[in-house]
Design goal:
The protein is α/β, with parallel strands linked by helices. The chain is built from 14 helices and eleven strands. Strands 1, 2, 3, 8, 9, 10 and 11 form a seven-stranded mixed β-sheet that branches. Strands 4-5-6-7 form a four-stranded parallel β-sheet. Helix 2 (73-82) links the parallel strand 2 (59-63) and strand 3.
């Protein structure tokens, strides 16, 4: 895919309004929509501009905040569908996510609906989401969406307080029958600045565990952990070798892998997804006010859709061009996986102030690039 011409995904933060107050919220969502969010007419222009991407159209993800806090969201989604744009939704689990909403999303042809589940126990999930009883409501929402025929994606943000429950979350994904498990590796932005990240060695353990989890009937992919692609490639090459011994993995992997084996279904072929995207390469984010960013976790403003073409910003901005050419410094710039992985640009910026710097969360010992690469 030619990521210089078109992204795969455009995330549009339709509003900052949300009825939840999650501890790791990137958006630092608020109770009511802001008057500065894109108007209905401005939103229509943004959607129309997305048709300028070629040779393929990106999936437009309606996110937030909670997209259902924007009253015209279904009208805007219908317009996008009428123009041939694939769409998806990332709603919050609140009373607004009812069966009527599920039916409307299905009728509009939503490719996926993603729901966040940040623990396998009520105390863990609700401690992050800030709402008593929210764990049960989330499981009910997943079941309802599946019953309405949706492709359901469960999003989980990995952090110190929930990492030991990942095997049980994987079991829930499998038993519920969800189609995709998308695992976010914490970036210290927004309210997430107060939470604890894992060490590089623990990240390595978790990514190997995720490869194992992808054998239980659902697709696994990661956000802000592109080093998962390196792990996927290594594990496929190693075939059925003992991962802990072959890759020198730590006690966290051994604990998670042992509990994963208790999932009540037989493992099959891996469904680990490893498309070579990263912030600004195949991914683009538009804020509620129309500001364009490489991703929702990389707060470097590139332009604004009120005055600029989103196609021109994506294709021409110097930072995005450098990201797509893998013009990185430090270990990421010297790594043999510089293009296939490239590290999290958001984490590089959060830790060093340099969006082209190295990803400090990666444990890989770099093999210098051959002179023919890059």
């Amino acid at each position: 895919m030619d990521f210089d011409r078109s992204p795969i995904l455009v995330f549009w933060e339709t509003t900052k309004a949300c009825l939840l107050a999650c501890r790791h919220c990137r958006a630092e969502a608020i109770a009511e929509p802001l008057p500065t969010q894109l108007s209905h007419e401005e939103a229509l222009r943004l959607i129309a501009d997305l048709r300028g991407f070629e040779p393929y159209k990106p999936v437009l993800i309606f996110t937030g905040g909670d997209p259902f806090m924007r009253r015209d969201v279904f009208e805007l989604a219908a317009h996008a569908s009428s123009l041939g744009l694939p769409i998806g939704f990332a709603p919050s689990v609140t009373p607004l996510l009812d069966r009527d909403a599920a039916v409307r999303m299905r009728e509009l042809g939503a490719k996926t609906v993603s729901i966040s589940l940040d623990g396998a126990r009520p105390g863990t999930h609700e401690g992050i989401r800030g709402i008593d009883g929210h764990f049960g409501l989330t499981l009910d929402a997943v079941r309802m969406l599946l019953d309405e025929g949706h492709t359901v994606q469960i999003n989980t943000t990995v952090m110190r307080r929930n990492v030991e429950e990942l095997a049980e979350v994987a079991a829930l994904v499998a038993t519920l029958g969800a189609h995709i498990w998308e695992v976010f590796f914490l970036i210290r932005v927004g309210r997430g600045s107060e939470l604890q990240e894992l060490t590089p060695a623990e990240n390595e353990d978790v990514t190997h565990f995720l490869y194992d989890a992808s054998r239980y009937g659902f697709i696994v992919r990661t956000v802000e952990a592109p080093f998962f692609r390196r792990v996927v490639a290594a594990r496929r090459e190693a075939d059925d070798a003992d991962a802990a011994e072959t890759f020198g993995l730590g006690p966290l992997y051994r604990r998670l892998a042992a509990r994963l084996r208790e999932v009540p279904r037989e493992p099959g072929a891996t469904k680990a997804q490893s498309v070579g995207t990263r912030d600004g390469k195949g991914i683009l984010f538009v804020s509620h006010e129309g500001d364009v960013y490489p991703s929702g976790f990389l707060p470097l403003r590139l332009g604004n859709v009120r005055t600029e073409s989103i196609v021109d910003v994506y294709r021409s901005h110097p930072l995005l061009r450098a990201i797509r050419r893998a013009e990185f410094t430090g270990r990421c710039g010297a790594c043999e996986y510089r293009d296939a992985c490239g590290g999290s640009r958001a984490r590089a910026y959060a830790s060093s102030g340099d969006p082209l710097g190295e990803d400090a969360a990666c444990a890989h010992r770099v093999t210098p690039l051959a002179t023919s690469v890059g």
